[in-house]
Specification:
- The chain is an alpha/beta fold and 215 residues long.
- It has 2 domains: 6-17 and 89-213, Rossmann fold; 19-84, Putative phosphatase, domain 2 (DNA polymerase, domain 1).
- Helix content is 42%, strand content 12%.
- The protein has helices at residues 19-31, 39-45, 50-58, 64-82, 94-100, 114-123, 147-156, 170-178, 208-213; strands at 6-9, 106-110, 132-135, 163-167, 182-186, 198-200.
- It has a 6-stranded parallel beta sheet with strand order 3-2-1-4-5-6, with helices on one face.
- α8 (170-178) links the parallel β4 (163-167) and β5.
- It is globular, with a radius of gyration of 17 Å.
Length: 215
């Protein structure tokens, strides 16, 4: 396994179980503008880039500056909310997993806003583990397109066929599969993740390391 196998992790729902906070914050933020956030809207939010979410929730007539302003304001509220509990919200076993595999190529590829990625990596002190960090604004097309995972593989110097992606969202799984990579589904957000190569509840799953050893 120590050959050239690269491990690429999404952030929200994989490194940190943050989607419950994102749900609450989106609902609170939208309410400021008279928008009630129903369950269908929440489900559409998972795994998508902020500009797509804002246009979905607020309608398509916003200017680019308005889209960016809404996204930035919501994410400031998210960081204020999750900051005091961030370390407690890490997905169980993820820090130990990263430590075990620190000598392999490790990457992070997330549609999350760059400021959120910086905040999580710095607050949780996880930055040293990752040789490559790619956000959805660094590629032409965010997830569900494969661009973000292909860019991470390129930065890690690893062919896509030798990459394993850890994802919690249907959008992210679609992106990783389109990139030609194996996918481990992390069941923090959804109970079932059809089509993945392995499903785990979190990084303490006893099936994970034996499965990786066979790659």
């Amino acid at each position: 396994m120590a050959r050239e196998l690269a491990l690429i992790l999404d952030m929200d729902g994989v490194i940190i179980d943050s989607n419950p906070v994102h749900r609450d914050v989106w609902a609170a933020y939208n309410r400021r503008y008279g928008i009630e956030t129903d369950e269908a809207m929440q489900q559409r939010m998972y795994g998508r880039r902020n500009d797509d979410i804002v246009r979905d929730f607020f309608g398509g007539r916003l200017t680019l500056e308005e889209v960016r302003a809404h996204g930035a304001a919501k994410e400031r509220l998210f960081r204020e909310t999750i900051g005091p509990v961030l370390n407690a919200a890490l997905v169980p076993g993820v820090r130990e997993f990263l430590e075990r595999h620190r000598h392999q190529p490790l990457g992070l590829a997330s549609n999350a806003e760059p400021e959120n990625i910086e905040f999580v990596l710095d607050t949780a002190r996880l930055r040293p583990y990752f040789r490559a960090v790619v956000d959805g604004h660094q590629v032409a097309r965010p997830k569900p397109h494969p661009d973000i995972y292909l860019r991470a593989a390129e930065l890690l110097g690893t062919p896509p066929k030798d990459c394993v992606v850890f994802e919690d969202s249907f959008t992210g799984i679609e992106a990783a599969q389109a990139a030609g990579m194996a996918v481990v589904g992390v069941r923090t957000t959804h109970d079932k993740l059809p089509g993945v190569d392995l499903e785990i509840r979190d990084f303490t799953s006893p099936a994970l390391e034996p499965w990786l050893a066979t790659r």
